[in-house]
Every structure is written in C-alpha cells, then in structure tokens.
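Follow-up to my post from last week.
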Amino acid sequence: MKGLKAEAAAELIPDGASLLIGGFMAVGTPERLIDALIARRAEGLTVIANDTAMPGKGIGKLISAGAVRRAVVSHIGLNPETQAKMLAGELAVELVPQGTLVERIRAGGVGLGGVLTPTGLGTEVEDGKPVIEVEGRRYLLETPIRADFALLAAWQADYVGNLCYSLTAHNFNPVMALSGKTVIAEPEAIVPVGVIPPDAVKTPGVLVDHLILRE
Amino acid sequence: MKGLKAEAAAELIPDGASLLIGGFMAVGTPERLIDALIARRAEGLTVIANDTAMPGKGIGKLISAGAVRRAVVSHIGLNPETQAKMLAGELAVELVPQGTLVERIRAGGVGLGGVLTPTGLGTEVEDGKPVIEVEGRRYLLETPIRADFALLAAWQADYVGNLCYSLTAHNFNPVMALSGKTVIAEPEAIVPVGVIPPDAVKTPGVLVDHLILRE
Amino acid sequence: MEAKELIARRVAQEIAPGMLVNLGIGLPSLVANFVPAERGVFFQAENGVIGLGARPPEGMQDPHLTDAGGGFVTAVPGAASIDSAMSFGLIRGGHLDMTVLGGLEVDEAGMLANWKVPGKMVPGMGGAMDLVTGAARVVVAMQHSARGGSKIVPKCSLPLTSLRRVSLVVTDLAVIEPSDAGLVLRERAPGVSVAAIRAATAARLIVPEEVPEMRLG
Amino acid sequence: MEAKELIARRVAQEIAPGMLVNLGIGLPSLVANFVPAERGVFFQAENGVIGLGARPPEGMQDPHLTDAGGGFVTAVPGAASIDSAMSFGLIRGGHLDMTVLGGLEVDEAGMLANWKVPGKMVPGMGGAMDLVTGAARVVVAMQHSARGGSKIVPKCSLPLTSLRRVSLVVTDLAVIEPSDAGLVLRERAPGVSVAAIRAATAARLIVPEEVPEMRLG
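User reply:
Got it. Predicted complex:
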C-alpha cells in the first residue's frame, strides 16, 4: 500500500490512459483525483463509468475540461455538455446498458471471458454482438472490460487498504476495484488497521495499490 | 416475510426438490433445517452445495440418511460416505469446480444466461460444453443454476429478512440467496429492524421468503 | 388534478403490499408520494438502496444518499445498501416486482422506446433496458401526447428499449394494457370519453364494452 | 528434518513481502508456519477470509472462522471476510499472487493432476482448477514419490487439473521448474545427489551445470 497526494497520483496517470471511475451522478466519485487530473491538464482519456454526472461535478468536470476522448457510459442525459460534444464529434460516446456495464467490468475483474445477458436483445445494443442460445433462450454475449486505472471513492480505508462505502456511494466502486490494472482509492477517512472489522470490508486491501492521503 | 419453525419449513420442501444449501465443510450450513428434513424422512433430494461436509455434520447428515439422490458439488474428499455411495451407484455426484459453481449459481440468480470461464478447459470438465473464443482466448460456456429452494445459514436477520453473515460462514450463502425460487434463512439471532444498519446488510430482505424462528 | 399527479396516483394503485418497486427519474418518482407507508412497499433506486424514503429534512441531507436522479432522499427502517452489481442482479434476475418508467413511444405490440431520439436527444438507456427486460411487471407512466402528437403509435419509430412487451401504460387520458391481440383500453381518466381517447391515440385500440373511470385510491 | 517440514520450509522462501497467497489443505497449509509475520503476507483461504492467522488459543475457537479444511484458524489485523463469489473472483481474476497445492502427478509439460484417481479416489477438484488456472504463480508441494513410484512422470495418467503449466514443484528431494524445454532441476534437498534425484524421477530432467542445495531460510 502506498499513500499518495492526489497530485502525485495524477502524475501516475498518463494522457490517453483508460480509467474506470466510480460514482453515480457524482455520488461516490473521487473528486480530488479528478481535480488533480484537470490541474495537470490530462488529455485523451478514456473514461468508463456509469454516467458523466453534470457540469461542475465529478466526471462532468473532466468532460468540461476536454480531458476525455472517449466515454463508455450508460447515461448522459443530465449532462448537456456531453451530449453537445458528442453531437459535435468532439467526444466518442459508447452507450452500454447499466446492468451490462457493471457485469462487463465485473467479468474483467474476476477473470471471466464474458457473460450472456438478455438485456439489449433486439435493440441497437445487439449490433455486432454474437447471440447465443442457452436452454431455448437467446442472449447477447458481452465481453469483459478492464482499464489501466480504477479511481475509486470510499468512505473509510484502513492502513492496509481495506475499503468500506456508505449508502448509495457504493454503486460501481466495489466492482471497479477488481478491474483496474492499478487501483487508486480516495477515502474520506483513513483509519488504523482493525477499525474496519472484517465483516464490514467491502473491498479487500489486497486489491488497492494506492490510497490518496489527506490534504 | 414469514417466520416458521424448522419443522414447518421442512414440510414445505417436497421429496425430490432441488436445494441450494449454504456452507463450506458445514460452516455456514443451516443445521436445524437439515435436522428437520431428516426427521420428516425427506428423500430423492438434489443438493447443490460446495461440498458434502463430513458424516454427522451439515449436508453429511443428509447423505448418511439417504435423503439425497443427486449432489452437485465441488468436493467430497472429506466425506468417505459420499464417495462410497457414489462408487456403489446409490448417489449421483456431479463435480463442478468451486469457482465455476459459484458463478453458475450467481448467473441463475442475476438473470444471466451463462458465463465464460477458462477454468476446466482441456480437462474432463470440458466434456460436452461449448468452447467459445473471445479476443483470442478460449473459454467454457457454463450455464446458470437455480433451484426450488435455497436453505441459508445467517448470523443475524432482522424482522424484514435482511441478513448478515460472520467471517468464513459467508461462503455460498449470499450468492444462493439470489437463486432459490423459495429462500429460507436460518439465522442465529433475529433482531429488530434497524439493528442491522443498511451498510452491513449482505442479503436484502426482499430476497428472503421465510425466517426460521427460535426453538 | 394536474396530469402528472393523476398519472402518479393511478400507478400507485398497481403497487401491492410487500412489493419491491423501482421508480424511474422524473414523473415515475412521484408515484412514491401516493403509496402509504403502511403498505410495506420497498422502493429500490438502481444506484444502490433498497428502502428509499422521502426527502430529508432541511440541513439533514446526506451526500451519500440520493436517488437515481441525484436528488437527496432518506432510507426507511430496514433499508439495505447495495452496489451496482447487486442492484442489477436484482433487476435482471427477476427479483423486482415492478418498475415504473417514462416513455417516448409505446406501440401496438407493447414495445417501448424511451432512451434515444437519433441525432437530437441521446440521454442513454441508463438502467432502462435491464429494467424493462427483467422486472416482473413493467408500467409505463407518461403523458398521452407530446407536442400535439400521440405517443401511442402503431409501430415505434424510435430505437426500442427491449423486445419485452410492457405490462401496462398509464397516461393522463387512459390506462392501456398491451396484449397478444393489441392495445386494450382498460380505463378512462375522469371525465374523458372513449371517443376523446381514440382521437388522441395514433395506435389502434381494442375497446371492451365496459371502460370504467380510473381508480385513483 | 521431516520431509513435510522440509518441503514447507522451502516453499516459504518463494513468498515475498505483501503477497496474497492461497495454501491448500494438508501439506501446503504447513507453509504458513515458516513465513514470519513481519513479511506482511496475506493468506487467503478460499472458503472466505483474507488474512488467515494461526490456530486460536484453546477455548477461543470461533465456529465461523475456519480454513478450507474445516480447521479452526484466527484472522490477522486487517483481515477481510469475503463470500465465495469474491473469493474465486480474486483467484480467477489473477489477483492471487501465489497458490500452493498438493499433487498426485506432475508431468514433463508441467501439467498437474491432483483431483481424481478414476474408480478409486474422487475427492473432487474443489477450488484447485480455478487456483491453477488463475493464480499468478502455481507452486506444487508434494512428496517426490508415493508407494515407491515417482509422482513426476513423462505424461500424467490421471485426469488433469488445468492446461496451465505450473510454476514450480517442491518435493522432499528437489526443486523442479517446468519450462518450454521441459523440467529443469533447480535445487537438491540437503545431502541428496543429482543421481539420486534422477533415479527417483520417472520424467526426463534437464540438469544445469550447477544444482545448489535448497535454501531453507
């Protein structure tokens, strides 16, 4: 486990990197890491996340700053800038159904070669994907997603990197912790080992490479 | 949520039913439910579980009682009775790699048509299964498992059926909670609503049909 | 009564005690206001809570407790936090008793389109494709018409959300139930005639002999 | 030194600080005894704990805290409870730095057989197939011979555990590393000659000029 300032973490992340970023409409998103990426003028990023939040919050700040080249998300309806940049051809947006997105990220993290889902059958989401029949029902084959980095927001972390999350700030964070080649967590509090009991740990510290330290 | 005595729950489960039963070498196994099934002389059951424990404990008691016709498990090495009954043709045993077993049960519970895993490729486990190539790697297609009932052991339950588990007694229980048509949980303690905080719930009560009441 | 309230009140009648229900952003989220707490219903927000409660008191908002639209909510006693994998596991796995979603179009086959107007407005499907595919019952809550045009059409012109037929459509004019035979007019809004509904509907409607007024609880 | 202790001591040398390591039932579980706590290694038991510790004091056993063989263990500070889906997610997903397993046979291609003797003994694969397929490093810890026969053979006659080549084989006589060219003899047990190892091994061995004695820490 290596503690880092947000600025130092942003230096680890090269332009053009692919990033899994936790959060749902900016709830459970690592804001200090995002601010540090913008401060170092990151560009060409691929962002894989539930949504692009709204202007001024979470991933919305990366969109506004022009740091993102490609977004793989389920929803952009509450960020008009994302829609405008997409329609203007400045930003590639790949829309993935939310349940499919989380399973693809999980598959990448747990070593599965893909999952079969009924979601998207017969819609635009089916285009170009194999359809596989199992026990008389048809499913889309959806492939795993991994990324160079996973940027997580957590509620508490302990010194060995065990993480727990609060209420609706869980969302994609526990799954993304499995699927980044390098995993960086931004907790709201860092507590001594033993403060988070084993049964309360949602992300084992062995998955976490770096913790963002207090300012 | 309906509270039941173990005896009443055993009456709900007909001979020949398929049962997902939580536990790993009898740790995290609902012993009172098993005792009640044996007391009502259940027979012809299909048991899907990690293992058959050992004689005198957990699923081992069902094996000894001759209640099981078919076992879908990853390991029987510590129960010589299971091995003897299998070699004598009295018990059908389907061996499934442990990681594949848990993913198949999860797939059944979360509505996936299957998962692709590298585990078992080129071994006897591959026999009769489709091999699917994704991004240049080969995987086995493993299909979902559901069952008529899931019999779970939990640490605490609250009045709406929210469950939490302790240490290594989690094992298959949280996943099986998703995949039984009827889910029956045997908690060690039943506590008022609010005693288990939302972030500590591992199985939401909406998945649980019946709680086994105190003796 | 305002159109939105009428729709929300009528949808609320579909919700039985003990159900697990997902309410979409916007109009569908109003439904919770008309379901009495005594009914023991659990509302799920796909972003991660089972047991969504009302708006919090001023100054007591928790930044970690919002609905899928990002608005502050509370949690009821017995609530559970879940991550997105569990949330959509419940949805896709058939554990959700009902979902209430908005719609852009519903057609005679009961197909729903609600996530994209090509070249114009692309909010994305969010959780809608999983919800329509996986929930035990799918209720569409929407205005009957938009910009003077019927949203209930012979065949959807917009991209579909799912091949799954929706269970019920509740609008400010009518309750319509898709079936093998087509769209069946089940109820009229108070004071609205069958003829007025036909006139406002581009799709063919099957009209039974009796079309009662909506029950509004 | 007893054979089992020798093997466990040698395997312990493979474990670097900060690793996540799974130890199989039986002989492999002894390895933990020879890894100093200061090394900051996390042991995983596939049944559900990261941070497995030593045997508990008498009378302090918790029935909810066992290893994969069902024996009572403790948890170290910083331990985490995980369910079977997470446990095998870590294993299959490549998050496990090393697994140590027993073996029935290892062959010249580095293939392992360790879960079935057809018609005779069928313990089942348990987690072995996932562990051998998914762990970053796979170490086989076993006696060199059984019932007078070599367990290191030209080609496995028993059903394979995985098509994945194992990383290292540690026996009471030798350390052997499977490679593209075949099985390379890396180390000798204290006082055991290369000739004695060759004589006890049914498989062809590649013998470098230098074959040092085992480091035992």
